[in-house]
Amino acid sequence: MSEFKISDPLLRRIVYAIGIMGVIAFGFYTMGLLKNSIAIVLDGLTPFIAALLMAYILAPVVFTLQSQLRLGRIMGTLVLYLVIFLIVFLLLAFLIPKILSEFIELFNTLKEVFPVLLDKLSQNEYLQIDEELIRVIKNKIREIEIDYEKAAALLLPGLKKVASGGIGAVAKATKGIFTSVSSAVSFFSLFIFVGIINFYLIIDWEKIRPLLRKMVPPQHRERVFDVMDKIDNAVGGFLRGQLTVSAIVGIMFAAGLFCTGFIGFPGLRNYCILIGTAAAIGGFIPYLGALIGVTPAILIILLTMGVPWAVKIITLIVVLALFAIIQGIEGFVLQPKIVGRGAGLHPLVVILALIFGAQFGIGGMIIAVPLASIIRVLVLEFYWLPIERREADLIDSGEDET
């Protein structure tokens, strides 16, 4: 019986593409049926998944501490834990209260600015906006309220004091987290549980590879571990690298806007921590952090009243220049040097992975991006690269025949 082959390269690629889309569609349908069961399993495994990812990210740091400080594995891990504890303490004591106070101040400022801006727009003879529409919009804006009580209650009861506003109240509210026994116990129990699992994973990290090697048949070890090394470079490079890049982008934005505030636009200095933190969080998606950082900065400049337009234009130019510099540094220096070209995921892939993972709860979001990196490597290794090699062989054989 002769083997069926498609000689036309274009038709062959179309058939392959249709087959892959069919497999993907069937996979989505199956996962849709099992969505609730998968979500329950992932929720139960969330501490273990979080601990595994933390160990995966932190293990190289422990190895570096061992080699640089000549410490044992346990002592190196404890030193790293001490550093993490100090960072978390500084976040709770200083950064989070500052971010919350800046957010409250910005929200209240925007509520005051928008009605004035709408009045000016209604007076513009070229726009000819209906005054009744302006009045309705202004009333809707005045009715907008952030329910600090409800939002804080969803986090921890101690944060209810945030509703009073002001950095002093926010600082007290942050300290009040620790006074709410039921919430604090549940939170820190999970935190300690994850930390204990993470500790033992880091201690035994180097034993995992030999154990896996014994489980793989000898004839397949070379190929399996070659693919595993590529997965390790992709997942580890993206997670460690992108977290580092996002932190650097956030710091650059906060520092840049703080310095920009001295040229006559103090509003940017007042919100530099909030904007820098937003840029750092958004920076986990490649190239999105700089965009998230520059957008609120531009809005603050344009909506601030009582500042001459000459100062606004100069500040806009400075902020756009800052955006261009940070974007250039991220694209040409940070991404290639820290993340690596082979480890990078397209921003749309990261967004889609996070959206898809969110359907399965927190556990799904935690594993979404690493899973996307693994799938990318597997698709390249077992689907795309064989196609390219096959097409190259066909082209070479066609040239030989001619």
Automatic annotation (TrEMBL):
<protein>
    <submittedName>
        <fullName>Transmembrane protein, TqsA-like</fullName>
    </submittedName>
</protein>
<feature type="transmembrane region" description="Helical">
    <location>
        <begin position="309"/>
        <end position="326"/>
    </location>
</feature>
<keyword id="KW-1133">Transmembrane helix</keyword>
<comment type="similarity">
    <text>Belongs to the autoinducer-2 exporter (AI-2E) (TC 2.A.86) family.</text>
</comment>
<dbReference type="InterPro" id="IPR002549">
    <property type="entry name" value="AI-2E-like"/>
</dbReference>
<keyword id="KW-0813">Transport</keyword>
<feature type="transmembrane region" description="Helical">
    <location>
        <begin position="74"/>
        <end position="96"/>
    </location>
</feature>
<dbReference type="GO" id="GO:0005886">
    <property type="term" value="C:plasma membrane"/>
</dbReference>
<feature type="transmembrane region" description="Helical">
    <location>
        <begin position="243"/>
        <end position="265"/>
    </location>
</feature>
<dbReference type="GO" id="GO:0055085">
    <property type="term" value="P:transmembrane transport"/>
</dbReference>
<feature type="transmembrane region" description="Helical">
    <location>
        <begin position="14"/>
        <end position="34"/>
    </location>
</feature>
<feature type="transmembrane region" description="Helical">
    <location>
        <begin position="272"/>
        <end position="303"/>
    </location>
</feature>
<keyword id="KW-0812">Transmembrane</keyword>
<feature type="transmembrane region" description="Helical">
    <location>
        <begin position="181"/>
        <end position="203"/>
    </location>
</feature>
<keyword id="KW-0472">Membrane</keyword>
<feature type="transmembrane region" description="Helical">
    <location>
        <begin position="41"/>
        <end position="62"/>
    </location>
</feature>
<keyword id="KW-1003">Cell membrane</keyword>
<dbReference type="Pfam" id="PF01594">
    <property type="entry name" value="AI-2E_transport"/>
</dbReference>
